[in-house]
Each structure stands twice: as structure tokens, then as C-alpha cells.
Amino acid sequence: MYDLPMRPFKHPPVSEFVLERLLYALSDPVRLEIVRHLDELGEASCGELDGGRPKSTMSHHFRILRDVGLVHTQTIGTTHMNSLRKDDMNSRFPGLLDAILVQKE
Amino acid sequence: MYDLPMRPFKHPPVSEFVLERLLYALSDPVRLEIVRHLDELGEASCGELDGGRPKSTMSHHFRILRDVGLVHTQTIGTTHMNSLRKDDMNSRFPGLLDAILVQKE
DNA sequence: ACTTAATTTCGATAATATTCGAACTATGGA
DNA sequence: TCCATAGTTCGAATATTATCGAAATTAAGT
Fold it and tell me: Tell me, what's the ipTM?
């Protein structure tokens, strides 16, 4: 018998994206910073993006970003690689993420 | 001596708009509904937009919308006329408000 | 002046969120 | 198998926010 793979994260389908929740997710400075870094870097592990913050705090924020559909996380070995679901976001909310990400400060 | 006019609302200048606060303001369902109605109607008084909600609650939400720069309020007689500061928003955050307002649901 | 209408401010309560340490889980080596 | 690494989950403390009634404010009308 095969072992079940490590329980994958639930990434909501585009049809379940909710505008209010997305805006809320992006209204937190820590999360907006995460999203900006992911935009610059393309992808990054959770650990790379903590600014000295505890892991539990970061994990909390990543979960919110995943829940609203902004971030995709895949497990590679023991690290979780995160990236923005830009295409999905753009198909559901055209122009919105771009309009936010052009704001660099 | 002239009486001072009724203390006007403080409407922040465009330079003081803060992205995170704007996103936060729009992440509340009641406030997003207000903004959508203002977009449709062009302008409206506070009373026109309560959905049966208490006035103090509406006043709270309007203040937040004013504070982030989304809404302009002018006193006309005893009513407060509200409208969206679309041009100001667009100059500070190009495309952002539009990308949100095209989402009608 | 007095009254009404529209809204704001105050104060309290309830609901939500953020933060973070500690314990737990999964994966990859030694 | 034992250990280290990377994250997650749990639980509790703190902080923010939403909601709403009651009282205060402002302007207009009588």
C-alpha cells in the first residue's frame, strides 16, 4: 500500500474567490509585503520571507493568503514553495492585482 | 462677526492616501456596498444608503470611507451629500478603484 | 426661541484578528 | 532509527473593529 502524500493545501478554485476577502487579505502590511516579495522573486519559501517574525505568525499569514486564492503553495522536500496565482487572480479580478502591485511603497 | 461654518470634514489630500487603509476600507461588505451605490448614483446622503442599519453605524462607516480618501462629503442644509473621489483615487492608485467597481457582485 | 431632521460623537459590548510560544507533523539525511 | 529542518496547529493574550443606543450637534423652518 502506498502512503498517502502529505495532506496538500487547499487552494480554492477561481470561482470561489471573494472580492472582500481578497481586499482584506491585502490590507495587512505583513501580508502585502509577502505578496510584494513573491511578485519580485517569483517564488519563495515561508522562511525566506519572515522579517524576523516567528514562524507561527508567518504561517498564519500564508494561510490567509492561500485561503483567498492569492498564493499557491507546493511542498518540495521539507520546504513550502509559494508563488502568486497571478493568472487566476487576473481572470477573476482583471487588473486588480496589477493595480495594487504597481504601488511599490 | 461671522459665525464659523460648520466644522468641515477633513478630507485627506491625495498625498496622504495609504494603500493598505484603502484596501481595508473596501474589505467591509457594508462599506463596499456604500461605495457601489455611490458609484451608481453619483451622490447620495447618508440616510439614503442605510439598509435599515442604525445611523450611528452608518456614520462610522462613512467616516472610515472619508478618512481613506474614498468619499467626499459636503454639507447641504442638514444633509450630508457624499460622492466618490474617483479622480483623486485614480491619480494616486491608477486603475485600482475601477478594477474593484467593475465587480458588481 | 422652539422643533424637527440629519448626522455625529460617546460609551459599552461583542465579534474578529494579530501575535507568539509550545507542541506537533512531515521530510530528508547521517 | 535518530536528528535536524521547515512549517503547521493549538491556545491564550492583546489589539482592533463593528454594532448600536443614547446624548449631543448643526441647520432650517415656524
Answer: 0.93
